[in-house]
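dumping this here so i dont lose it
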């Protein structure tokens, strides 16, 4: 993976790439460039990270850059979007496990610079922990670059339809579509947790730069809605359209309902 082809630039901030691989490499390049830029200034990059199938190739490319090009993550502070609740950190399907498996175990980020909502937070103090998570992001100066996927119901993080624009990090009930999409991984709908801790829409939209990555034809319908339908909490991703700092990076399948098919 070393060549990026951008086939169409629809507007300033919607990029359609020929393949999922090209889109993922483009995202990885943006992240790497931000890390390098900050390092040259002697600063840390506060990086918001996502889970799911979508960012896997991005992480694969970042790991490759670390191994083959010497990209260092020593000046990176990461905050993940969400975690299932309750779920043990060591559960193979926890987002802690996901991040270790796909990224953290393979790069030189300091363990103390990694932050994720915790599926084992004590329920009695959950509100305090969530507040402290948002506070910690602020203490680090806010998120410089946030990577997002999108759920088929338009969720970002785990902010289900109905999530308010000013929502902060909190416990949320998982939407039926979201649980159904996770059922195969958990080997049965009944094993999918009912709730999650997610950064709120406000926590996400305060990021200085945001990249929404969507891959594959199963995302085409929601991408069309996110970009074309009225801005409303019913499709939380529509909120992103109100922000100047958002870039959408799509492969041609995810973009098939918003653009003419590519040659
Ligand atoms: C989960 C995550 C989201 C992610 C979404 C889409 O719900 N919490 O952050 O964007 O899944 O997942 P996928 O990329 O597998 O389609």
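and the seq i came up w/
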């Amino acid at each position: 993976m070393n060549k990026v082809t951008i086939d169409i630039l629809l507007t300033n901030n919607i990029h359609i790439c020929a393949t999922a691989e090209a889109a993922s490499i483009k995202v990885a390049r943006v992240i790497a460039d931000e890390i390098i830029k900050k390092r040259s200034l002697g600063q840390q990059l506060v990086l918001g990270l996502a889970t799911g199938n979508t960012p896997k190739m991005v992480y694969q490319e970042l790991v490759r850059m670390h191994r083959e090009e010497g990209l260092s993550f020593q000046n990176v502070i990461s905050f993940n979007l969400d975690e299932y609740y309750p779920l043990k950190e060591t559960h193979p399907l926890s987002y802690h496990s996901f991040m270790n498996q796909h990224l953290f175990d393979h790069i030189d980020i300091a363990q103390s610079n990694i932050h994720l909502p915790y599926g084992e937070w004590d329920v009695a103090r959950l509100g305090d922990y969530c507040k402290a998570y948002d506070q910690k992001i602020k203490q680090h100066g806010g998120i410089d670059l946030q990577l997002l996927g999108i759920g088929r119901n338009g969720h970002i993080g785990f902010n289900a339809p109905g999530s308010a624009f000013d929502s902060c990090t909190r416990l949320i009930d998982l939407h039926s579509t979201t649980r159904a999409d996770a059922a195969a991984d958990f080997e049965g709908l009944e094993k999918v947790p009912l709730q999650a801790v997610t950064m709120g829409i406000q926590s996400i939209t305060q990021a200085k730069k945001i990249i929404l990555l969507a891959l594959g034809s199963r995302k085409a319908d929601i991408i069309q809605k996110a970009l074309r339908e009225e801005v409303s909490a019913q499709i939380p991703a529509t909120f992103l359209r109100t922000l100047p700092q958002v870039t959408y990076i799509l492969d041609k399948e995810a973009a098939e309902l918003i653009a003419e098919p590519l040659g």
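The chain has one domain: 3-251.
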